[in-house]
Amino acid sequence: MGKRNLVRILAWENVLTALVSVIAGVGLGMLFSRLAELAAVRILGGHTGFGFQVSARPVFCNGGAVYRDLYPDHDADAHLDLPAPSGGTSEK
Fold it and tell me: How many angstroms separate the CA atoms of 69 and 79, rounded?
């Protein structure tokens, strides 16, 4: 097995580990958040049902934040040909 194959295997291993970690972290975070909420309601003597709702927007925002944290040097505007900002001086 050559270096190229080893690099490919390690890259896929890292990607799969990251995906499993993020999915498990979000899932367990939602579960324990709900359990903590139910415990607080019980301590305070309130009544609640065990309804569970997941909104897609916060999940995708969390995924975007994780991506931003993992790749801080990624320039989202790199594909745009924006003019360089002028320094306030003009050439004559």
Answer: 20
In DSSP notation, 42-55 reads HHHT----------
Indicate whether this model's pTM tops 0.90: no
How far is 60 from 65, CA to CA, in rounded Å? 9
**Calpha distance 62→68 (Å, rounded):** 10
C-beta separation of 53 from 60 below 8 A = no
Whole-angstrom distance, CA of residue 31 vs CA of residue 54: 11
Cα-only R_g, the chain: 23
* Residue range 6-24, pLDDT digits in tens: 999 999 999 899 989 988 9
| Number of other residues whose CB lies within 10 A of the CB of residue 66 | 15
Single out the residue of 45, 24, 49, 56 nearest to residue 34, CA to CA. 49
pLDDT tens per residue, range 28-56: 998 898 889 889 998 998 887 767 777 78
